[in-house]
Write a structure and sequence with these properties.
Structural class: mainly alpha
Strand order of the largest sheet: 1-2
Shape: globular
Number of domains: 1
Mean pLDDT: 85
Helix content: 55-70%
Low-confidence stretches: 1-5
Strand content: under 5%
Largest sheet: 2 strands, antiparallel
Order of helices and strands: HHHHHHHHHHHHHHEEHHHH
Number of helices: 18
Distance between the termini: 52 Å
């Protein structure tokens, strides 16, 4: 980009708009590459809709697909893996890495954009922070691939087994949900390894670590076992994740006894329940058929998908801290209207307001889109809602309707995945944000609620 172009971006676009356009550009490039004949295993160019849908799903680390990932050639799978990795880390993190490798200093504007992209509150030390993100990501993903290779290499051979191990490790850590298991027996995804503790526990760990958030990583690294030194944010994230992971697993264990768990041992049901709880938090894999789940489990999955992971992570959803802040705010209001607090720290009014906006926007998007899907084609309401929540929360789980979606419905899902990745509030801000706001406020209206 020339000097004029660079100044145009700096003075005409906000940080949020640059992030939104960056993801859009990445999706466009991915779509073009996937439309090449060499990207498909059969040597035929896919349709524009299929390529766009897949590129969006990979860039937004969702995992919803209109064709099996195993139907793409090795070249196509490499493109998908790159989109997943860049989409999971955020393109600004990758850009920061290149600045570092080229020994070029980032300007304040670039640093502020980087801070916005990973949801940080400070600019200081952002280059070192980005470097740590990439380093720890590489270590974790390679470690996950090494563990998965213990199962995949003996089953598939050295070359294919190593590729499967790396692909699924990256996909799990980035909470993408893409898999190459279409050629294996079962109902796709990780159903072939439904009771395999090694594969399941490795993926659960990758999903959980990827969904904690970079700020939490940094806090854990800095303070290690000194829990008392952890920030309120880190403690809230850890507590919320533990409650959702183990609470969700317990409920799946109870709900699925008469459905997918029928006739299985308690140990098999336990690992399947734990995996179902972990993957619903925006990972997108499944070890049992979603269509075979009971209604209670489907509703629980929708709730877990809607919540998602934690801020500044590879996961989507409204985020664990958003739900926690809203819950604490409700409890505080019932108890007398005092400002909500957590771990001896009060929660700012602006945080509660932002959490409310995120919750309302994501819920509105999911419900409205589900109504549109049901209006366009005959679908069960719960399946349509399952699909839309999965898309806007960038989860990738499906009740089995993705491949049969009407073209307009598919476009709705594409838009939801994009909005879910950049953030519903960020997307709205990107459309309406202005650099200068008028210093005039409207008169206050007296409106009763509740």
């Amino acid at each position: 980009m020339g000097i004029k172009g660079h100044k145009f971006v700096r003075h005409r676009l906000t940080h949020v708009q640059v992030i939104v356009l960056g993801f859009a550009l990445m999706i466009a490039i991915g779509t073009a590459l996937l439309m090449l004949p060499c990207s498909s295993a059969d040597g035929r160019s896919p349709s524009l809709l299929t390529a766009l849908f897949t590129a969006t799903s990979a860039s937004c680390v969702t995992g919803l697909v209109r064709r099996s990932t195993s139907e793409w050639s090795l070249f196509g799978q490499v493109i998908l893996l790159l989109l997943i990795q860049i989409g999971g880390l955020g393109f600004m993190t990758i850009a920061t890495m290149f600045f570092h490798l080229l020994n070029r200093r980032m300007g304040l504007w670039q640093r502020e954009t980087m801070v916005e992209s990973i949801n940080l509150s400070r600019v200081k030390g952002i280059t070192e922070f980005a470097r740590d993100i990439i380093l720890y990501t590489a270590i974790i993903e390679l470690s996950g691939a090494a563990l998965l290779s213990l199962r995949f290499v003996p089953l598939l051979g050295p070359g294919r087994g190593a590729w499967f191990s790396l692909f699924h490790s990256v996909s799990a850590f980035c909470n993408a949900g893409f898999d190459l298991m279409g050629a294996l027996p079962g109902d796709g995804s990780l159903t072939y390894f439904a009771t395999d503790w090694l594969v399941n526990m490795t993926c659960i760990l990758l999903i959980t670590v990827g969904g904690l958030g970079y700020v939490v990583w940094n806090d854990l690294k800095r303070n290690r076992r000194h829990v008392g030194r952890y920030s309120a944010h880190t403690r809230l994230v850890l507590v919320a994740n533990a409650i959702l992971l183990f609470g969700g697993a317990g409920l799946f264990f109870l709900f699925e006894k008469r459905f997918t768990g029928q006739g299985q041992t308690a140990g098999d049901r336990l690992i399947e329940s734990l995996f179902a709880s972990a993957t619903a938090r925006t990972a997108g894999f499944n070890s049992v058929s979603v269509s075979g789940m009971g209604s209670a489990s489907k509703l629980l999955t929708i709730f877990l998908m809607f919540v998602g992971g934690s801020p500044g992570s590879t996961a989507g959803g409204v985020k664990t801290t958003t739900m926690a802040v809203l819950l604490l705010s409700c409890i505080s209001s019932v108890r007398g209207g005092r400002r909500p607090s957590v771990f001896g720290r009060s929660i700012a009014d602006g945080t509660v307001k932002k959490a409310t906006h995120i919750f309302f926007l994501n819920l509105s998007l999911a419900v409205t889109a589900a109504i549109v899907l049901c209006a366009l084609q005959p679908l069960e309401a719960i399946d349509a809602l399952f699909e839309t929540v999965s898309a806007v929360s960038t989860v990738g789980m499906t009740a089995g309707i993705t491949g049969s979606l009407h073209p307009v419905s598919a476009c709705v899902i594409i838009l939801l995945m994009f909005i879910g990745r950049v953030g519903s509030v960020s997307f709205a801000v990107a459309l309406m944000e202005k650099h200068k706001r008028p210093p005039v406020t409207d008169p206050t209206a007296d409106i009763m609620v509740g």
